[in-house]
Amino acid sequence: MAHNPLDKIHALDEIEQEIITCLQSAGQALQELSKEKSSQKSAETQTQQFIKSLSNVESKLSEQINYLTQVSTGQPHEGSGYASAKVLQMAWHRIQHARSRVRELEESKAKYTHAARQQQQQRQQQHAQQLAQQQQQMAQQQLQQSHDNSINPGMSNAGATQMGQQAQN
Hints:
Elements: H1 5-34, H2 40-73, H3 82-151, H4 157-168
């Protein structure tokens, strides 16, 4: 199949010449048959030439029609950049899809990071509250001990505990 426009024109010229040959063969075959003394061999030769030319015309026209069908429907064809353009288009589509997915993943990562930071801050606040409660409890215990020691200055905690147990018995 021809690749450039000049080759296409040349191919169409060849088809036109083949059509002329076909018509001439048909005309000569009919002329031979219309004679009073027709030569059967000559008529058969012209008929065979006509059939051969007609077959060539049909074949070459089919090629041209197929080419034109491909060109008009956007299918890949010889001498076109369709296949390359399609590959490029699909590559751009894949790149756009990849960029979209990366953007989605970055958004998910940002959401996860934000949620993780919030959880960490909540844990730190809870831990700080627990420490404050423990310190407050220790301060209350120390205050209670110092209060107990001021009431019974000679007794230690152990002695006060033993006395409290004895009093309960």
